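Posting for a labmate who doesn't have an account.
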Amino acid sequence: MGTDPAFDADTRRAGQWCRDHLKESGFDVELVETAREGHRGQPIVFGHSQAAEGYRGPRVLFYGHYDVQPADPYELWESPPFEPVIKPAEGAMGERVVARGADDDKGQVAMFLEAMRAWKEASGLAAGGVPFTVMIEGEEESGSVNLERFVDAHKAELGACDLVLISDTAMLGRGRPAITYGVRGLVYTEFTLHGPDHDLHSGAWGGKCPNPLNELAKTLAMLWDDEYRVTIPGFYDDVTPLSDAERAEWKALGIDEVALLKGIGLGPDGDVGEAGYTMTEREWARPTCDINGMWGGYTGEGAKTVIPSHATAKVSFRLVADQDPQKILTSFKKWLAAHTPKGCRWSEVVDHGTGFGVTLPVDSDYLAAARRAIKHASGKEVAMIKTGGAIPVAGMLKDLLGLDTIFMGFGLDDDRIHSPNEKYELECFRLGARSHVAFIDELLKMGSA
């Protein structure tokens, strides 16, 4: 578990296993230490394969991570989280693997590794002769704290790649393969509003001085207008407008938004968000702002009538491609300063992480090759989708190296990633392995054209 020091040795063994697997598949690979002196850190599995004679196609950078989220609460697991078991797939044909990391991201990395093994056995060449650089880290679930330094230190080799391949996303649904061509970026903040220098009796001081909880709630409510648009000046300046063609393509996917709402216990009137956009459009193409937590004063059992001396909030922004996280962070800080309640002051805004959103050009030859590969492996047309989540490494690699990313993932929405009883269906694993095999074949064709 990447975030828990008690499991550091186990996490490292996962990296060693990846390294050994790639060595057996013909890669020149090593574990590169990342930790600064006196700090924790897990090594990066870093390797490469050579191009076959006469190959003139792209070099691919494959990124994944071998660390996982903590498994607690353990009592909710039906089987030990780090002892994988195979069970019947619920409500579907086939079987599933149940374990922590079964999908995120061990199972999806294993698809790539299986494809590498298959090509080595079939051709005698690592990756069938397609030049790959592999970067599999062990700190993704704890913030990738050493990754940017690693990328900066290895710019020459990483920058020689032509595209990035990541398998850490989901399909549109069972039997509905998809390529994710866009993910959102992120800004995550925490800050405190301070009022009196100590908690006060609400009977003696209520209505006479600012209550930081009241003022914080009133202030944050001003972040949106009546149409749920974010009110920070310039927030939408760099947002790429959603094209009519994309709207039509997404509508044709037939996503049942009412069913999605029902799945979280809401009726159709739960469709709440920026006016003029569907649920899918808001998730895939529009930036958002959310309060993720707010607290202060007394929250224990029973009553304690206090006016708290301070109140704290966590606020995050999901960004779309072309929005600059640092620009948004700076704008938010200015917005807070301009909306400081009377008699109060803000603490320094804590930056809990930022990342760029990325969108791959839909006319990319590499994207077309990936679509052909998945169609060959599945026998079905491949949907083009985006996701509302963030994969910060993709934004980092775009920002530092100018590389675009293809997200070729095979998870399902019900895989329970980060939750007890995480699973990955064997049919998804097999489809992913076949698709990676076919993608290398497509690249070989490109390289010999």
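Reply:
Got it, the structure tokens are right above this. The chain has a mean pLDDT of 95.
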